[in-house]
Write the structure tokens for this entry.
Amino acid sequence: MSKEKMKVALLYGIKNLKIEETDIPEVGPGEVLVKIKAATTCGTDLKIFQRGYVSGIIELPTVFGHEWAGEVVEVGSGVSWPEIGMRIRAGNSAPCLRCVMCRKGNYNLCEDMLWLWGAYAEYIKVPKRTIMVNAQEIPPHVSFEEAALTEPLACVLHGISKAGVNVGDNVVILGAGPIGFLHMLCARKLGAGKIIMVDKVDERLDYASKLGADVTINAGKCDVVSKVKELTNGYGADLVIEAIGLPATWEQALKMVRRGGTVLEFGGCPPGTEIKVSTELLHYGEVRVLGTFHATPADFKKALDLIASGTINVKPLITRKMRLEEISKAFELLMTSKKDLKIAIIP
Ligand SMILES: [Zn+2]
Ligand SMILES: [Zn+2]
């Protein structure tokens, strides 16, 4: 196996992505080699494509892509699970279970996290720790594309469960991208009342209406804060979720929450940025503001279970399928397309 070659997408710099042939990785003790059947694009990958680097991995060219599912083709010595031929997915993170954060149960904040990149390739070698703590078999009726969406759904589950949705809550979601859509689908299942989606692209808002939003607001055409107030009898929403990742919208979210409500600042902002928060809002208004990051292995498991049970239907989020050879085109498309949410890359 080790002498055979595989195709892999290598990032050389800003928007400079090339398909090259490299050796199929050799599998060591405890490791598993998976033939990737589908990898989905993600906002994080798009950022990496546009910025030309991966934080934590500094050497260029580099592999990237982190949402995938595939079939086990080789297992190292000592591997009792999975078996060759099994359809599996694995998370892009595997906590150490030993550090202070892990011992406190904050597995997503592990200080010795093992990250896994390289989904845009024909094969991926999955480390022993990832197999041990963050991998699952994919039920036969779940497609590889759907299973690849386990990661973003896990992150959304982590955030929205921390924020909490009560039955009948009015929820505002800022940003109708894949993450905003997943928040919308989860909020609906959790019993949200009115779900208000906000974006600047009408096509995305129309799609949000189709998939379950009660009201949509085009942020480019009206004042979002006063519109939300108007839709909530002047009070503001019970829960506001920011799914864009800009300090301006983080601050805007604080202005449309009701007293006693919650703001989930979900979208990751550029490094070094800050926001202003009114002390009165927190004190007299008892507004709860929280940020969440990534997901725990338990969230990943729950995410795949919810996809498998049909509770969360992720299929409509995959708006296109493209070959691995077309990956540059896929990212160029995502930069301009008004309709695409996630593209499944098929090696
Ligand atoms: Zn992702
Ligand atoms: Zn740890």
